[in-house]
Amino acid sequence: MRVLMWFALGFGAACALGAYLLPQGMLAAAAGALGVLALGLILAGIRFRWVRPAAVAVLGCCAGLAWFALFGALYLADAAAWNGVTREAELTAADYSYETDYGWAEEAYVRIDGKPYRVRVYLEEETELAPGDRISGAFRFRYTAPREWERTSRYQGKGIFLTADQKGDLEIHRSETRAWWQYGPVLAKQTAQILEAAFPEDVRPFVRALLLGDSTDLSWDVDMDLKISGIRHIIAVSGLHVTILYKLVEALTGKRRFLTALIGLPVLAIFASMAGFTPSVTRACVMVGLMMLSQVLDREYDSLTALSFACLVMLAANPLVIVNAGFQLSVSCVTGILLFRQPIDGWIQRSFPKGDGRLWRWARGCAAVSLSAMVLTVPLSAVYFGTVSLIGVVTNLLTLWAVSLVFNGLIVVCAMGLISSKLAGALGWVLAWPVRYVLSVAKLLSRAPLAAVYTSSEYIVFWLVFCYMLLAVFLIGKKKQSGVLLTCAGLGLCLALGCSWAGPLMDGCRVTMLDVGQGQCILLQSRGKTFLVDCGGDTGEIAADRAYRLLASQGIRRLDGVILTHGDDDHCGGADDLLGRIGTELMIAPWTMERDRLPQTDGRVIWADQELLITSGKCRIRIFPPSFLESGNENSLCILFEAENCGILITGDRSARGERMLLKRYDLPEVDVLVAGHHGSKDSTCRELLETVKPETVLISAGAGNVYGHPDGELLERLAQFGCTVYRSDQNGTILFRVR
User: Fold this and answer.
1) Which residues contact 45 (CB under 8 A, 6 or more apart)?
2) H/E run at residue 644
3) I need a labelling partner for 170 at 20 to 30 A (CA). Which of 41, 161, 428, 513 fits?
4) What's the domain range around 494?
5) 158-162, 176-180, 455-459: which range is least confident on average?
6) In a domain, 708, yes or no
7) Mean pLDDT of the chain
8) How many CA atoms lie within 13 A of 618 on its CB side?
């Protein structure tokens, strides 16, 4: 019995309960109840051996809840007390400052009652900071909101328990010396500079992401190619990279155990620090480190026990790492490989008994690893990324050999860069070709029919659940009929795709307001005709990604039209990326919009300077032009979408002034749905507009916790007075309104 494995399983389950479900006040009581249960199971285990694993798991769960309660009471409580507080503080930079879509930011540490807390600092202007620099000034602190999945995963899962917004001037104290733990970011930056100088411009973002996990400069289009083709994991520094690094060290030391451990352990520690001790890298380094130590000590190495130990170490350091997507994917991937690789490899061998030769065995092994990893990671990928690659096994077979070659080559390039930039540049030019091969394969396969499916369709979600029910029956059953399993899964996929694609064709009117954060992206559909109004959000990439997944889930590869209300990033920032993958027959933009803001398109472009009317079957779209000479919010295009006794009005970012001008110039009918102006600003969606169009339903596109306070309380009160049913993307997510 693997005692540590069962204990870690219970400990992890307890951390998940504490992070997602149980209130802090119930943790101690729950731990006590489980402690009593564990004692009873331990006593029962003296007589019944089969009870012992359950006893150990329950004991681990008891310990996990107790530790989670202590962590919250003794450590997190002090950080939570700073929530919403503005105060003078001194912060120590842990990394180099970096630019975001909304300014500059920095990872830093602040001490509260002598305890260090990691904090993400948002700066008002460009500020060059390096590890060890100290910044003093007034900051408004916010606790990183447990129970909100997205924010918790983004912050607390990475050990960031506070965010800080700069308030006023800062005083910067440059550091002359650095602590040992601050040299990881320094080495990472020096490595990035070597890569920047050695590689051609077209492959620099990819090689930087591959070696350092920094995908900041990777284009959205390339990122989507990797995600859809199923090899996005190669640029999320993880166990794959650590394994390749270990194999390189092992080759250089001639597989001498003591020498491999002597060199490998510090190399792994340095690599982990350069990657920022991400959960996936930390997990892999701990496991490989244990393997090297077991070889030196001539002890048996058990992978599941090593995985359990790595998880326990990480959960003890931060129980909230359990909510981190990288941690969950990494642990699930390794668990799937350990549990299912050999059975899948055996099934492939039985299915193709004539396969032989070294190349065949290698291909069979790669396929077994890829499929076994997918068994447990597919549900997580569906939840976090909304995408399930169906072609990933093929892509991995075609590219992983090149990825391994390039990764080893990058290490050599970095070593050469310390000696001669010309030699590093020569090798970089050579390595650029296998990089281009990987990117070309990903691009080609990502555009193949049915390369991936998307959970934007509820039918695909049902299909995934159905597949896992089939898998459970297959594993439990005595007769392993893999042909039946694959046939049922294939037929289920065909049915799910058919329903997904047929839905929009059958609806007389359908409006989908996507949850893109602080922005707007709306899909208007009627009997197979599809128009997109705006494509922007917290970032352009978020809007493009969610719009693409929704369109692809419905089998739509070309839009009938794209209408941009105006040129602000939160309305059109993602349109350029989206239209690089989804074409359009027509694009309409206000004539006051700056020409360089218009996305590239192969369709016809109309600069609206007068009322336009688009008709197609029973679908009619009226587009009202800008009302003023100046550009900006007031000159947003307004769209009236009418289809089969359903009317929808969109006013962009117009305020009451622009809305009143719209009412003055045009006769507007009553509508079923009104999209609130300017994301729910109090100065938009005025009384006169509500009195005229009398909407039954009002949709508000706003980001959760946005700094503008949208939607404003005054507006919500006004909508309540008019009896409107309100749906908000910050609370309801993506909203679908349809009429059959």
Assistant:
1) 51, 52, 55
2) none
3) 161
4) 458-504
5) 176-180
6) yes
7) 90
8) 15
